[in-house]
## 1
Amino acid sequence: MRVPPQHRVVIGALLTQFFVIGSMFAYGVFFKALESELGWSRTLLSAATSMAFLVMGLGAMVAGRASDHFGPRLVLTLSGASLGIGYLLMMFMDAPWQLFVLYGGLVGVGLATHDVVTLSTVAHWFPGRRGVMTGIVKSGTALGQVTLPLLCTALIVAYGWRVASLWLGVLALLALVLAAQLMRRPLPAESTALLERARAASRPGAPDPSRGWAFAPARRTRQFWTLCGAQFLFFPTLITVPVHIVAHGSDLGLSTGVAAAVLSTLGGVSIVGRLLVGFFVDRIGGRNGYLVCFSSLLASLTLLLVIRDPAWLFLFAALYGFAHGGFFTVVSPTVAEVFGMRSHGAIFGIVVFCGTLGGAIGPVLAGSVFDVLGSYQVAFGILAGFSALGLLLMLTLRPLPADDPHGDPAPAVAPISEPGRA
């Protein structure tokens, strides 16, 4: 049975999300083994994570524009190979500089494309269902962050960290390169049919999915910088809380196993958040989707600040997990809603980069605050303040004209070098 091309794209995007984010989360299970054998500190290991995040953000800007011009297949093949080779070569590490080159550099490049390229491609194929399809694809990240760390843990226990790194690298290399071959942009004729169906099924007042802004005029709009600012404000929380919540639960009196269950609850609810927010964004619009996510995030962090009975951490995890998953779904459809698809990859890439700037410093800042004060309260308070600012910022987001009023109308399909092959 022949699988329709849009379904192949969803499968390829979901597999990419699964292996990229799963590999990123798996890095943490190598910490104790690297500490024990090589004597490397947590600070050094965390610094490599921050470097990978910065490389990811810079790479996202390049990858977004490259995908707009050359198509997703080539970009995802190269980045997938980079991630797999980085992990594969880590088995030979014996000096800190190698960690920064291999994980901070090669793996960081591999991380750069998982959202910008896959979600932009999905947005092209599903102009009328961008939210719900983004939610389905992003559910792959939650599945990956549960599965691959467990696999690596088992390999480390059985064979050691070097063998685990080798097999993770080989598995990621093969899976990501194969998944990339499923990805392509719609042909012009396919885009026309998709857009006509989207117009026929669109809600009253919805933006025309065929229109859009070029990158240069888009980045001069207030809406562009509003989305960049929102990304910078919420992304530190999405990275910081999963890193520190188990330790915080232990500080409040939970056993390590129960504290880990809080993190598992967060991950499980995040899948629900991705799917529900994706479903509703198609109906209520991106701005309202952001407001729902920021409200849930602010409520969860406010609760976290006043919790003294650790049992309430599970309610926190439910509220936070919904927002955590929702934010990963809402961004790409909102960029498409505000600016159209003419330069979606390039615009989305800049927005993602703004988030990685905050994501790179958030966990380190929280750890430093704890080291100085012996508590996470100040750090969580700062994150709650960021959430409140983000909520206020998104209240100011207003629609744009369908096309740049000072330029030519957007073509229905952004040009790529090899239509149908890229």
## 2
Amino acid sequence: MIVAGFGFRAGVTVDSLSDAYQRASAGQVVDKIATADDKAQSDAFRQFADTLGLPVAAIPPLALAAQSILTRSQASSDARNTGSVAEAAALAAAGPTARLVAARVISTDRMATCALALGDIQ
């Protein structure tokens, strides 16, 4: 199973999410998308998920903070207690044996990030 994890700023658009997703996935088949639990309810993210027709995993703060990630964004660390919400969400949703297959990439407009994790949870 491949999970695409997302981090994004307030005011993100579907186009921003799609751009980050396309950059990170590079044609890989994604089974699920994930983000922080509060962000999962944003209008743009819900619309994006509906467009893809994929299930959404809403990850609680403690699960995000528990992940071992590659990227270290100070802003993300300060706000979310993780260096990358995208990487942490992907790993948390993909399960305990998950590993990153695409580190965080940033959308062209810098509003969204996406990372991919490979895991064994279905």
